[in-house]
Amino acid sequence: MIEGRAWVYGDNIDTDVIIPGKYLRTTDMQVFAEHAMEGIDPEFSSKVQNGDVIVAGDNFGCGSSREQAPLALKHAGVACVVAKSFARIFFRNAINVGLPVMEADVECSEGDTVKIDLKNGIVEVNNKTFKGNKLPDFLLEILTDGGLVAHRRKLQKQKKDQNL
Question: Which domain does 51 fall in, by range?
Fold first, then answer.
């Protein structure tokens, strides 16, 4: 169960506003975190707290395929992004880097407490329950392991341990 304070955004939040292009030359995750959502909410990085949740409309993460966008959100402390729909490449990049995402049409206001049950595809806000898309078990396992690279390392270690 993920529980956090809501940051609410609309439709078509693209990767250029999630992490503006001028910050892409670095590999410093702190730089990404300090400039997350800067293109739409310049104060976001100074206000967001670990465990907060982004709630958005349609087509979240559209635009370029930069993996830095979900990395910026993750390192800024965002625990999950819930959106009515995601750009496919953002959705996959989020899973790959270990940032939980869920498709659900959620009504809430900024600052509301959002509870997310990824396993069952349920979001609760203000005593209302919203049914979202349940993530397949293999994607939940990747998220639990911390992303695709960590997941593959775990599987390789298990295979190695079985062969001993």
Answer: 2-162
Which among 30, 113, 42 is positioned nearest to 72, based on CA atoms? Answer: 30
pTM: 0.93
In the three-class reduction of DSSP (H, G, I as helix; E, B as strand; rest coil), residue 145 is classed as coil
Write down the residue that tokens 């409309």 correspond to: 57
Contact 157, 149 (CB under 8 A): no
C-alpha separations of 7 from 86, 96, 130 in Å: 16, 23, 17
pLDDT tens, residue by residue, 95-115: 999 999 999 999 999 999 999
Crossing angle of helices 148-162 and 88-97, in 10° steps, is: 50
Total domain count for the chain?
Answer: 1
What CATH number should be reported for the domain holding residue 112? 3.20.19.10
Alpha carbon distance, N-terminus to C-terminus of the chain: 36
